[in-house]
Amino acid sequence: MPLLNGLTHFHGEWNAIERSYVEEVMIKVEVAYATEEKQLIVEVDVEEGTTLRQAAIRSGIDHEFDDLDLNEAPMGIFGRKVAKPDQEEVKEGDRVEIYRPLKIDPKQARLNRAAKAKADKGSE
Question: What is an example of a Pfam family matching this protein (predicted)?
Fold first, then answer.
C-alpha cells in the first residue's frame, strides 16, 4: 500500500523528542583488499556519517582473508592514506582501501634492484 506520493518504503526512525521523522540517508561505497593470491572489492550500502573502519567492518571482507584484522589495519580512500579511519567519514562512491604491511622497505627494494642490475651488467 503506497504511503505518500507513490512511496512504498523508506528507512528511518521516529524522533519522539522533536516529534518528527528522521530519515537515514544511505550511500554506496566500495571496500577493497588484496593479497598476492587474491583481491576482492565489496560494494556496501552504509548510512551517511559512517567512518572508513565502520564501512570496512560492515562489508564483511575480513571473513574472506584469514590475516585481516579490520580493527588495526591502515586504510585509505582511492590511494590516499587516511590517518584516522575511525574518525573520517566516507562519501558516496568512495573506495575504502585496506592496506597490508609492506614485505620490504621501498628504499631497500630500490637498493636491491640497483645491486642486481649492477651484478647483471658486470656478468655480460
Answer: Ub-RnfH
The pair phi, psi for residue 120, each rounded to 5°, is -65, -40
pLDDT digits over 88-109, tens only? 999 999 999 999 877 777 788 8
The domains located in the chain, with CATH, are 25-101 (3.10.20.90)
Contact partners, residue 123, CB within 8 Å, separation at least 6 = none
Count of residues making up the chain: 124
- Tens of pLDDT, residue by residue over 19-34, are 666 667 899 999 999 9
**pTM for the model:** 0.68
**Secondary structure (3-state) at 86:** coil
Residue 41 and residue 108: Cα distance in Å, rounded? 30
